[in-house]
What does this fold into?
Amino acid sequence: MMDHYSDEELAAKARGGEAGAFEELFHRHKRSLLNFIYRMVGNRETAEEVCHDAFIKAYKNLDIFEVDKKFSTWLYVIARNLARNAIRDRKYFRDISMDKEIVTDRESVSLKDMLADDHLRPDRIAQEEELAREAQVVLNSLPSEFREVITLCSIQGLSCKEAADIIRCSIATVSLRLEKAKRLFLKKLGISEA
It folds into this structure.
């Protein structure tokens, strides 16, 4: 069992050829990385392909990973760059279905399941599902620099510093983009700010 090692220790072990170390990293990060990529590209199949490519690229480049840095940040940088390439190259068809599964290994989850509040009253479920669909459409319509900060900070729960490390910009830039992105997101959803 390798679950007691840090990501950075596992990366060092994988670089040294220890069987199972990179597999543990894959299992730790696949779901959150796939969800991040899906939010960026808006297409399940493309997200799965980009996620797969990100892990392959990370594995092939373990020799350049600096073990004193955070592995997850490095992995997100790789995934972000590949997702942006996929968007730029238009090798995808935007699929905004809230019901399609976006994780297929151990557990399946849809955007609807991720965004839905399990404690809603039955009479509010339909209304919340429609709002979740609209929210994903609006997220997909935002410029990529806004979509990525909302995805990293508001959806993935990363700090502005962690997002800045991934995007490779200042914390102030992330904060500014996040504020602008939230305003634009709410405006496009037709929700006024309080």
